[in-house]
From TrEMBL:
Residues 100-209 form the PX domain. PROSITE patterns: EH, PX. Pfam families: PX (PF00787), Snx8_BAR_dom (PF19566). This is Sorting nexin-8 isoform X2. It is found in: Membrane. It comes from Frankliniella occidentalis.
Length: 477
């Protein structure tokens, strides 16, 4: 960590080595005072001063100079990663920490591809990898299948179905785009999955036919337990009361899921009612325009000299225009409720449903996973004998080598069972980190409703004087 901190200063290697020697960092640890002195030396070096212990001894100011170290966000992530390695049973992350792991976007590519059978493409970007690639729905399916095989004891949200009966093609495509964005966001922000070469390949490969290429390279990669450094001491990671706590947490999260689902239905209803309100106001304006334009039945024979209706019609055009503004405000409110409220709740629902699916997979037991891993081991040995490991991706080979090194660990069903419980413990903590989203939802709900009702009230207040002018003088009585 200290080494990376020094590199952030942008100083030449000679200066960095000098600071390293002055602080005697080779001894393996650094006190707080030594760290502050090292940072002061960095600041002085950036000022062009010659470095020596005398600079520190002769310093008489209140505070050491502050160095320029640039963006330290990656060091914060490294620190949390190191903490998780030291305390593998404690996630130690909040929702904001998860969001900082990566920011992805999934946008629709305007033109459709294919000569005869058209298909939709998405432009996928990753802030972490600094990439922008094009992907099809089937590419996501290939990634999903590989991740599910690689991480059977982790939260893998569901992909949207290939076809959804939700109305027009445009609506379906947009709904699926949003779902794919949520799915990829959750996967890329998973503290374990986001470190895997499979995900990196998906974000960085820029060749053709990725759905087959990614399967070809990674289909033989073993599951997480097979290659994990924690597998051999999995029993140490599982507290004695894990089964009881897991059962309690599962019931707790089930209740949360039911309530959040109901809240989601309510917010969907809010958006639909705002849209219906906007449509009603538009229709009301249209009817007033129609009434203002008709001239039948206004003869003196019909009215008997009563001019009230004619006077009222004069304001209908003005009122209809105001109602048009009211309609647009209501439609905008519906969009806000959908985009800011429902989208956040959908993200939370995805992770809650993923936990439900994970519990269902875990209930089936680890024997099936164990048999699959054993079959891959036999297949790998056979392939090694035939010399077919050549030409594959380096990271894949490293994973397979790791699998061979801990063959005795893999053979233990008991260790696999313990490891699966450890993963369930960590994924339960991950769900609780995502529950912070619900606080955001409640806050957004309040702010969106305040804004929406304030805008509608403002338009109604603008309509009121016109209404008063249209009414007969004694109508209010």
């Amino acid at each position: 960590m200290f080494t990376r901190l020094l590199v952030k200063s942008g100083l030449p290697q000679q200066k960095l080595s000098q600071i390293w020697e002055l602080m005697e960092a080779k001894q393996g640890s650094l006190s707080r005072t030594s760290l502050y002195k090292a940072l002061a030396l960095v600041a002085w070096a950036q000022q062009g001063k010659e470095l020596s212990v005398k600079l520190l001894d002769n310093f008489s100011g209140d505070e050491y100079p502050v160095p320029s170290l640039g963006d330290l966000s990656d060091l914060r992530q490294l620190q949390k990663q190191r903490q998780r390695q030291c305390h593998p049973g404690h996630l130690g992350m909040r929702y904001g920490d998860l969001c900082r792991l990566d920011t992805v976007t999934v946008h629709l590519v305007p033109e459709k591809k294919g000569l005869f059978l058209k298909h939709v493409e998405y432009q996928v970007t990753s802030k972490r990898f600094g990439t922008k690639v094009r992907r099809r729905y089937n590419d996501f399916v290939s990634l999903y299948d590989l991740l599910l095989g690689r991480f059977p004891y982790r939260l893998i949200p569901r992909l949207p179905p290939k076809k959804m009966n939700i109305g027009s093609d445009t609506q379906f495509i947009e709904e699926r785009r949003q779902w794919l964005w949520r799915w990829l966001s959750l996967v890329s922000r998973h503290p374990v999955i986001n470190q895997d070469p499979i995900l990196q390949f998906f974000f960085t490969y820029d060749g053709d036919d990725i759905q087959h290429k990614i399967r070809e390279i990674f289909r033989r990669v073993p599951d997480e337990f097979t290659t994990s450094e924690l597998a051999s001491r999995a029993k140490e990671l599982v507290p004695p009361d894990t089964l009881t706590e897991l059962a309690n947490s599962r019931e707790h999260i089930r209740l949360i899921t039911n309530s959040v689902s109901r809240v989601k239905q309510i917010t969907d209803g809010l958006a639909q009612r705002s849209q219906a309100y906007g449509s009603d106001m538009a229709e009301l304006g249209s009817q007033l325009t129609l009434l203002a334009s008709e001239n039948n039945g206004t003869s003196s024979w019909a009215t008997g000299g009563n001019q009230i209706w004619s006077e009222m019609k004069k304001g209908f055009h003005t009122i209809s225009k105001e109602l048009g503004i009211l309609s647009s405000k209501a439609m905008a409110q519906s969009v806000r409720e959908e985009a800011e409220l429902c989208a956040q709740l959908n993200l939370l629902m995805d992770i809650l449903f993923a936990y439900r699916d994970l519990c269902a997979r875990h209930e089936k037991g680890v024997m099936q996973d164990h048999q699959k891993a054993h079959a891959k081991m036999l297949s790998l040995k056979k392939r090694q004998m035939q010399g077919v490991l050549r030409g594959e991706v380096e990271s894949v080979v490293a994973l397979e080598d790791r699998m061979l090194q801990q063959e005795s660990v893999i053979a233990s069903v008991e260790l696999r069972s313990a490891y699966s419980l450890h993963c369930m413990h960590m994924e339960t903590q991950l769900v609780h980190a995502h529950l912070e989203l619900f606080a955001t939802v409640i806050s957004v709900l309040v702010s969106v409703q305040i804004r929406g009702h304030a805008e509608l009230a403002e338009v109604w207040r603008a309509i009121q004087p016109t209404i008063s002018k249209c009414l007969p003088e004694d109508a209010e009585q």
